[in-house]
Amino acid sequence: MKQKIFSIMYAGAAIFMAVMIITFPQEVLKASQRGLDVWANVVFPSLLPFFIVAELLIAFGVVHFIGVLCEPIMRPLFNVPGVGGFVWTMGMASGYPAGAKFTARLRQEKELSRTEAERLVSFTNASNPLFIIGAVSIGFFHDHKLGILLAITHYVSNFIVGLCMRFYKHKERHSDHPSSFSFSKAIRALHQARIKEKRTIGKVLGDSVKHSIQTLLLIGGFIITFSVITEILREVQIAQIISSGIAVFLNLFQLPSDMALPLFSGLFEITIGANEISQADNSILIQAIVVSVILAFNGFSVQAQVASILAETDIRFAPYFFARLLHGMFAGILAWILYRPIYQGSLSKDTVISVWAEPSISNIQSIYVLFEQSGFIMTLAALFIYLILLVKPKH
Fold first, then answer.
1. Backbone region of residue 237 per phi and psi (left: phi > 0; alpha: psi in -120 to 50; beta: other values)
2. Residue 9, in any domain of the structure
3. What pLDDT, in 10s, does the model give residues 326-384?
């Protein structure tokens, strides 16, 4: 009986979507174009290099090298193997859902146990600096100082989530203990991993490109789909009804109720929500808190991407979702605590942080502008190469 109910629910949702697409063709088209624009101009060109390089690092044993070196740090802090250091750094640098992809990849390689993978994915699937500073802070708010506050809040709260999730199934002991730092042992691990790789360099490179683009095509589909879903929910007034309930929740924390609808949009798709929050008539502090929450929550669009990637393994989605709730709570609290010392105080023109941060922000802004101007061309070129790689084996 339960399965029949689910079948009816799934069929009903699909029929509802189909009817709404027919009913609101113009709105759906604009939402699809908005999602495609974000994916083709920013997401695809910014993530593709990281995905390809990560595949090469795994194939050539560099991940094993990093794993041995990071074991004395990652095991005591997060209760995961040293290879988690690779996933953590790559996840922060490239942004979501890279952490989930790399975790799933290492789980498939048997480098992580199921529990370790669930711990690792809970705190490695973060936003990247390009999106936080380039797209959100500079692109939407036109305020680079806000970018530093959001970035610090996002990564510090993510670190705290990692510390909390180390206690997830803590009674499940691992046979290995943290080893001492050993560069020679790391070199041996790299060499052994490379010897086990039987593919030629050309094959490894081709597979890296194909697997990376396949993942990015999946990500693009989710971005467009959730952009359309968000627009449909607005058109049929469901978003407004749910937002009224969110407004009651916001009032409990003395937050303005007019942030409910932007928050609702952000819970589905981060980019849309952040843009709407930047246009709301509220203080920077309120906007910073709400944006920090949706960045940490990841949005249902990113969560669906993660769920799809994890479905290829035995890694469960529930711990990741629980970690997103923790991340959102910690991020909102930290944004409130750090707003005065970081945004109002420490970022005046004559401080050390400003001198350090200005060049970095300028570089991130330049990269973001580059993606906006030529990202679509880069995406088309990569897809053309992908088609060549797909057709080539048939000859």
1. left
2. no
3. 999 999 999 999 998 888 775 444 444 454 455 566 666 677 677 667 777 888 888 88
Q: pLDDT band at 393, cuts 50/70/90?
A: low
Distance CA 335, CA 82 (A): 30
The answer to the question of residue 8 being in a domain is no
> How far is it, in rounded angstroms, from Cα 52 to Cα 79?
27
Full-model pTM: 0.83
Q: Is residue 12 in a domain?
A: no
d(CA 131, CA 36): 16
Is 85 inside any structural domain?
yes
- DSSP alpha helices (H): ranges in the chain? 2-23, 25-38, 44-59, 62-78, 83-94, 98-108, 114-124, 129, 144-165, 183-196, 201-235, 238-252, 260-268, 270-279, 284-297, 299-310, 318-338, 352-391
Q: Which domain holds residue 98?
A: 23-394
DSSP state string for 348-373: STTSHHHHHHHHHHHHHHHHHHHHHH
CA neighbor of 353 nearest in space, from 145, 153, 155, 150: 145
Q: 299: left (phi > 0), else alpha (psi -120 to 50), else beta?
A: left
Q: Which of 19-33, 255-269, 285-299, 379-393 has the lowest mean pLDDT?
A: 379-393
Neighbouring residues of 232: CB distance < 8 A, sequence distance ≥ 6: 17, 20, 21, 24, 27, 28, 31
Block residue for tokens 């880069």: 378
- Of 264, 262, 269, whose CA–CA distance to 225 is shortest? 269
- Total count of domains within the chain: 1
Distance CA 291, CA 312 (A): 31
Distance set, CA 155 to CA 92, 138, 220, 334 (Å): 8, 19, 25, 11
In DSSP notation, 227-287 reads HHHHHHHHHTTHHHHHHHHHHHHHHHTT--GGGHHHHHHHHH-HHHHHHHHHHSSS-HHHH
Tokens representing 333 are 């609290």
| 62-80 per-position pLDDT tens digit | 887 887 888 888 888 898 9
